[in-house]
Design brief:
Elements lengths: L1 H8 L6 H12 L3 H17 L1 E2 L6 E2 L13 E8 L2 H10 L4 E5 L17 H10 L4 E4 L5 H14 L4 E4 L15 H9 L6
Helix pairs in contact: 1-2
Length: 192
């Protein structure tokens, strides 16, 4: 039981109490359900790789998004990882293509642009006639560094924009930190 709890705790966002709850839940399941769960994990690990075009997770050479012909081909959204892509897809507002960098530039962690999918991004912008690149990267030191680097690199080829940052819907101003409020003021738009 302790080994099972320890394995759950290794997952991101799972603390000791949640790990214990998950382990107890699994132990109450029929053996065939536990086998199906284990088989699904092993199959996902062996079958899921990266899309050859955008580097999103995929079991096929091209991911489901890259295979959709109705996507706006001239619009490209750059994200750090597949979690960010899935978050944008949940909005059902964005209809262009994606490019997953595989992380953010972080000199402190030894991650430079050469370890990310930057060169394939430049190649795509050049070869696919991309009219706009939207940088949808985390508002952090690493995200800002990566955004500045990519903007400088891509500006000679295409228009580069960055998603706006600010206050979440339904939040109170007095609970927001200074940086969030400053970004919200900078990203303000005229009311029409």
């Amino acid at each position: 039981m302790a080994r099972l709890i320890d394995q759950f705790e290794r997952l991101p966002g799972i603390g000791p109490r949640t790990a214990q709850r998950l382990a107890l839940h699994l132990l109450r399941q029929p053996e065939e359900q536990i086998r199906a769960f284990a088989d699904a994990l092993l199959a996902a690990r062996s079958q899921v790789g990266q899309c050859q075009r955008c580097f999103h997770l995929s079991a096929e050479p091209l991911c489901e998004i890259c295979r959709q012909p109705e996507r706006q081909s001239g619009l490209l959204c750059v994200v750090a990882d597949s979690r960010d892509l899935l978050a944008i897809e949940r909005t059902r507002e964005y209809k262009g293509s994606y490019h997953v960098l595989g992380g953010l530039i972080s000199p402190m962690d030894g991650i430079g642009p050469e370890l990310l999918h930057v060169q394939p991004l430049v190649n795509r912008v050049d070869q696919e006639g991309i009219s706009e690149v939207i940088l949808a990267l985390t508002p952090s030191v690493e995200g800002d560094t990566t955004s500045l680097y990519l903007a400088r690199l891509l500006r000679p080829f295409t228009s580069v924009s960055r998603i706006a940052y600010g206050l979440p819907v339904g939040s109170e101003l007095d609970y927001a930190d200074e940086v969030t409020l400053a970004r919200a003021m900078e990203g303000r738009r005229r009311m029409e």
